[in-house]
Specification:
With 339 residues, this protein is an alpha+beta fold. The chain folds into three domains: 193 residues, Rossmann fold; 56 residues, Luciferase, Domain 3 (Luciferase, domain 3), CATH 2.30.38; 64 residues, 2-Layer Sandwich (GMP Synthetase, Chain A, domain 3), CATH 3.30.300. Helix content is 39%, strand content 22%. Strands 8, 9, 11, 12 and 13 form a five-stranded antiparallel sheet that branches. Strand 6 and strand 7 form a beta hairpin. Helix 1 packs across helix 2 and helix 4 packs across helix 8. The longest helix has 18 residues. The radius of gyration is 21 Å and the shape is globular.
């Protein structure tokens, strides 16, 4: 989708409201100590601007800045962060790399990883049988501590935001013993609206309850509406668009969702992104695209099919996987020729 750029008028109180809400989550759910952040995303992005800069300052934390994706793994081991705020795509990359590293360690290591993920998926559904207890204890003594060291050994939580997260990716890291949180928001809300927290129960297909002092309700058409000090004052020099999204103090997010019985927000899709096929069926593209990008072979995917009897996907192959495939098959690794 092509969207015209819009300048958001954020007041200081909105950003401070976000910082206070996030600090409350850390204080009440994890314990507020001498925190260490490793900043990876561009500070020009509202998500990192608040989550990777103002929030750590509010905690009185140390902030280190990553040297880039290639050195991120070594930066994590060196800095040993207690909290990290990143985007889903990075978690997908880390998941692929961890899986590949374990594959090289032999059948037993692969078996342990498979068992950890299997138990983690059962835990996500709230039903881990007693027969899995011995294996779980063994994983706590072997696989999970080793992988924890890859993240510095003292990580309290890793926070995903800025884009939708596939629950399978979140469950993967939770299976390895890493507390994984998903946040939700947009620039118009400074940007954090809600975040998973242990007190409310971690469920990877939700984005947790609203932050302290944030009101959320669901409109008749399913749109998520937000009200509170965190909401912007409007779009700069764009009164028409401001009037469209701000009504009676409520921010119309453009996201479709629901609130579960524990007060957690679950996002189902973007209001404008829904594809309607020739039979009138609604298709949520983000879910399909998320399933495609979970495959090691695919780095990006986009589907289309509005008013058509079928869906079409445009995919971008993963460069690393493509090079390995070319080497195995003896083919020339030229993307133009392969396409």
């Amino acid at each position: 989708n092509v969207v015209q750029d819009r300048a958001v008028k954020l007041h200081h109180a909105a950003i401070l409201h976000n910082v206070q809400g996030c600090c409350t989550v850390i204080s009440e759910d994890f314990g507020w100590e001498d925190e260490v952040f490793l900043s990876f995303l561009p500070l020009s992005h509202a998500y990192e601007h608040t989550g990777g800069q103002f929030f750590p300052i509010g905690l009185g934390a140390e902030i280190y800045y990553s040297e880039g994706l290639e050195k991120l793994a070594s930066n994590i081991e060196e800095v040993r962060p207690t909290l990290m705020v990143v985007v889903p795509r990075l978690f997908e990359v880390l998941r692929t790399r961890i899986t590949k590293q374990v594959e090289k360690q032999g059948k037993f290591a692969n078996y342990l990883l498979d068992r950890a993920v299997s138990i983690g998926n059962k835990a996500a559904k709230g039903r881990v049988p007693l027969t899995d207890t011995p294996t779980n204890l063994f994983l706590n003594a072997t696989l999970r501590p080793k992988l924890s060291k890859k993240f510095g050994g003292r990580i309290k939580a890793m926070v995903s935001g800025g884009a939708p997260l596939n629950p399978e990716v979140g469950n993967f890291f939770a299976s390895l013993g890493i507390t994984f949180l998903q946040g939700y928001g947009q620039t118009e809300s400074a940007p954090v609206i809600s975040c998973n927290r242990p007190q409310a129960g971690l469920k990877m297909d939700t984005v947790g309850p609203p932050l302290e002092g944030v009101e959320v309700r669901i409109a008749e058409d399913g749109e998520i509406l937000v009200r509170g000090e965190l909401v912007m004052h409007g779009y700069w020099r764009n009164e028409e668009e401001t009037a469209r999204v701000l009504k009676d103090g409520w921010l119309h997010t453009g996201d479709i969702g629901l609130i579960d019985n524990k007060g957690r927000i679950q996002i189902t899709d973007r209001k404008k992104d829904i594809i309607v096929n020739d039979k009138g069926d609604n298709v949520a593209p983000q879910k399909v695209e998320g399933m495609l990008t979970l495959q090691n072979e695919i780095v990006q995917a986009m589907i289309a099919g509005d008013k058509r009897p079928y869906m079409t996907a445009v995919i971008v192959p993963d460069p690393e996987w493509t090079q390995e495939w070319c080497a195995r098959s003896g083919s020339k690794c030229d993307f133009k020729e392969l396409a």
